[in-house]
Structure formats: C-alpha cells, structure tokens
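Sequence only, no structure available. Ideas?
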Amino acid sequence: MSEKLKYVVITPARNEAQFIELTLKSVTMQTVLPLKWIIVSDGSTDGTDDIVKKYVARHPWIELVRMPERTERHFAGKVHAFNAGYARVQNTEYDVIVNLDADISFEDGYFAFLLQKLSADDALGLVGTPFREISGETYDYRFVNIEHVSGACQVFRRECFESVGGYLPVKGGSIDHIAVISARMLGWKTRTFPEKYCEHHREMGTAQRSMLFSKFKLGVKDYTVGNHPLWEVFRAVYQLKSSPMVVGGLALGTGYFWTLLRRAERPVPPELVAFHRREQMQRLGSLFRRLLPFRALRPRESADTNSEVAK
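Reply:
I predicted one. Tokens follow.
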C-alpha cells in the first residue's frame, strides 16, 4: 500500500558536513525512494555542498539548492531554506512531503513504514517516529504525548501540509511544534509510531552551561507555543530528574515564567493557544485519573459504607 503514495523530501542544511552523509546514505538506501529530494544548503561554509554534490551525480532525483550566506542565525532561516526547496517541487505530483533534518539516520524500510501508516488511515495528516540521541537516550513521550511528532523528520500528507499553510517563520524556534498543533486544530490526526526510531547524531550540548541555556530556551519556546502555566509547572517538575539534575528543570521553568512575566508577544494566533491549552488540560486530567491510587466511591457505595460504619 505504501508504494501508492508518492513522496518528496526537503532537507534544509547549514554546515552539516559532519553528519549529512549518514542522512544521504539512509535516504538512498530506502526500499521506497522519493520522487525528489531537495537539499537546501543554507549558506554552508564547511564542505556540506561538496558531499551532497557527490550524491547528486549518482542520483538524478537529488537536487542541491544553494542559499546565500547569512550572518544572522535563527530558526526562521530554516523555514526560508525549506521554502526554497518547497518551491522546487511545485510542479511535481506527490502525495506526501517530508521535512528531514540533515543529521539523522534510519533503516532502509523507514519511509515505507510511515507511508503505510498514512495509507491505512486517511485522517492521519502527519506522522513520524521517536529519535534516539547518540547517548542512547530515546525521546520520552510519556509527558509530551504520542500525538507530538518530532521535527527531526515530519512526514506530512500533502493536503495536511497545505491546509496548515506550511511552517511559520518564528525566529525563536518551535516551528515544527506549531505545525503539529496547527494540524490537529484543523482536524487532522498526528501520530508518532514508537515501533521504529531514527538516530540523531548531533550532540545537543554537553557543557553544563550550554545544557542549562538550552533548557532555559526550551522554556521560552514553551511560552511561545502557548503552554498552559499549570502544564509548565508539572513539566518543569518532571524535568528535575533529567540531566542536568534539578537545575535543568529549574532552568526550564525560569525560561517560561520569565517570558510570561515580560508579557512577551506570541507569534501564534490566539485560537491556536486556546486549542493547545485545552489539549494540555485534558491530558493532565487523564494523567491524574491514571495516577490516583484510589477511585472516588460511587454514591451507592458511599451510602453502603456509611451504613456499615453506623452499625
């Protein structure tokens, strides 16, 4: 069934010479190949282009697009690079569009697996898998929810991607998260399938200061997408046990509430914030119901108990 769905891949890449060949090997070994793979070099200066050109020479369905160098580094630049690749597939007849990072790898049946999931359920608009860090740690979905799809590899049904209007060029990040929430708000199902995973090769930052700053920025991003304050409290508490122990969760909470107190403007529409918060409160309610060590007595049970006590 997966072969019935034709797909294209777009990869924004900025100075990815260290890992991009792992991604190139993964895609070119797929059991179901894409119609086109547009790799957009976002002003790379480290030899990324030379590595890609070797594969372009052997695979006519791979295309390299070169963006001019830019001094300012922000997430909106990644969206602009993606859009440059998106423009190259406008005249291609495809069913699925993939946003793929240039620092991950996966097995040869990876895309066939995800295409089959889309084929089996027309309501699915966006699918993906967990990613595993080089440390061996796999992304934990117990708190995030299985409906979140990592930005490392997002596989969109074409109609879904077009309905959300593509990626929002937010300088501060969370562009992938905003797309996931937007898809669900429009009635699409989004789903991560943990049966498979991709390897994420770029180390997120090992220095204590770098990791703390990363957690702080994550809290800022949580505010950006409209996380509910109560949700963020529980999220920060949950993060206390993650590396760096205790201070990581504190940095996350500080980033969120510092931004909240500043009343920073959100780049997303109010209706998306309201939808996102309703989902979070529903999930917290479900979580509490699962974790409570007892069930509230039914009225009949309560009356029977009181009767026994009275005796």
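DSSP finds twelve helices and ten strands in the chain.
Hope that gets you unstuck.
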